[in-house]
Specification:
The chain folds into four domains: about 200 residues, Immunoglobulin-like, CATH 2.60.40; about 300 residues, Alpha-Beta Barrel (TIM Barrel), CATH 3.20.20; about 100 residues, Immunoglobulin-like, CATH 2.60.40; about 90 residues, no CATH class. The chain contains 14 helices and 38 strands. It starts with a helix and ends with a strand. Bound molecules: beta-D-galactopyranose. Beta-D-galactopyranose (GAL) binds next to loops.
Amino acid sequence: MKSRIILGILTFCILFPVRAQMVWKQVEAGVWKGVIGTPEDYSLLDVSAVAPLKEGFTRLPEVSLPDLADEIIGSIQDGRTNLRIPLQKNEQLYGFGLNFQTVHQRGKILNLHVDHYGGKDNGRTHAPVPFYVSSLGYGVFVNSARYLTVYAGSGARKDSPDAPIAKDRNTDKTWAANPYSDAVSILVPASGVEIYIFAGPTPMDVVRRYNLFCGGGALPPRWGLGFTLRTHRMYTAGQVEKEADEFERRGYPLDFIGLEPGWQSKAYPCSFEWDKKRYPDPAGFVRKMLDKNIRINLWTNPYVSPESGVYKEMYPVSGSHTVWCGIVPDLADGKARRILMDKFEQEHVNIGVSGYKIDEVDGYDRWIWPDVATFPSGKAAEQMRQTYGVWMQRITTDMYKERNQRTFGLIRSSNAGANSFPYVLYNDYYNHRDFITALINSGFSGVLWTPEVRNSKTAEEWLRRFQTVVFSPMAMLDAWASGTKPWSFPEVEKQIKEYAVLRMRMMPYWYTEFARYHFDGIPPFRAINLEQGFTWKQTVKTEIKHSDLEKNPYQEMVSKEIKDQYMAGEYLLVAPVFTGQKERTVVLPKGNWYDFYTGEYVGNGESITVSPGLDRIPVFVKDGAVIPFMEAMLHAPKAGEKINLEIRHYGKADGAYRLYDDDGETFDYEKGVYSWRDIKVKRDKKGRLRGTISKAEKGKPDNIANVTWKFMTEK
Ligand code: GAL
């Protein structure tokens, strides 16, 4: 009898798909979870295993469940879940991971799939995060470790209450092949899934809630925000030491050096063991570098060489397929994770290595394990692909955390939930403009991205790239193949050095902005679209290009977007200039803006044209900005080392900033061992600007010796 009932229910479900409104449960302030069907027992949040940073939510406005929640519909058919989230006409969408060419995602069809970026924003990317933010001030996250298909406002239902109106292409010039669609549809290849809604009220609040929900943003060690060089892949210990000395002799800052594949005895696949010819005394080498205040970071991929000491032990807990003939640790299995981390600890971390660059955890398809691969844990190849980079970040972060030591490294794939892991994405693609668009998009998705500089055809390109990497999460020269030095282009050496030094001088600002990322979820590098005083409708025009019908009979409505300027921290608007450009336009949000270098007024809520010359990357500063600088140092200050501050104020408005401080190296900040100092700039009785800075609370970190003030606009 019982089995007949079950059979009956099953038949019903197959014939009539389950279609249901979601039931929402509040899980944090302004965050609601809905469940449809039976979610799989392996999700993105399961893999990252981080807890929300609860305290951070207390500084966000109180909000109620967004109205659209009632209209979200989930249905299950053929073992797949279909989510339908309504859209309004005046709405734009951002996010869906690390896109390189577009900021506006409305109208896109994306297959969210971890991969090396292949030159098209089609969902295949290093961090295909299934989270999006609406310009109307809410966000949606689908907690699935599957390849998801997203119709981000593409496809119109015939029974939609807000259906587009049919147009006649023969006569109507406004006809477009992409009529308005009133929903985002997401196809999840599983018979159930968790979905989260994040409330605003502003898009920035949504992003903050998302980052806080995923543990808060990463807080790198202070040295991570200095300058980093990745040396040529075949360098020996002696060559690396010589290069570090050359940096010092020439007065270039350097905080950590990355060793590329040649440090290992075998690479592609990897042994994780030192090459004894190039590095005869690894411990001595690492110690010597640490004595010079330079940390060592190691490149690796996780694919195990048959010649590695851990190959045999790893074999039973690795996947069915190989990558470059190396076995693939099944990271969903605790034993595989332990074997790998023991090896890393023993060979690298115990002798003082500071972190990793974890390569090739993304793709390409032609060498990474195929989707038919199997893993002893029973996880699907697809699930492993979506989470492999997150696993590597999690286990290395934990390894350092157990030693109460912060790390900062590089990773080539990530996903939702990894927000608090101290890793920066990078890749082999090298389009300067697209690198900037990726930097903008990273801020919507809880990931960090570096527009690394590798080599250039001309001195102009070299300088232009260098100027942007200095205003990014990781100021990195990746000379792994070219061996290029910062001074390789003598024509621009002076300017390059000036920017390398500027990076260091701004360390108190960068460090505070990362602390805000951690404690408040505010991304340090982000789109202008998240700024107050800016709405996408202000500047965006939609247009159809009626050019050649024969070439393209399906002309689409395209919305123009801003994808070449971004915010760096609270106050700075960075507008990179690209090779060949003599001038460019910059869109300023509402409010008075000032030139970073001179303090002069530049505009308010308008588009301006600038021609900065080769020496300068245009940077603009908000009215009332307070930017803490320190003296030029070659290495980040060590725990407890005192620095001198130069506090700059821009514009005419009063200023207020909270300067963050801690030891810069450990996790003691999680136990409250940090300080926020209030910086205030106000007018005195005579109307002159005056600055004050509060003392650090008693017993809390206090690393400031002297303070000087610089009023950039009112000199
Ligand atoms: C690439 C990586 C480069 C460099 C190189 C070394 O895959 O993206 O940055 O590390 O490997 O072989």
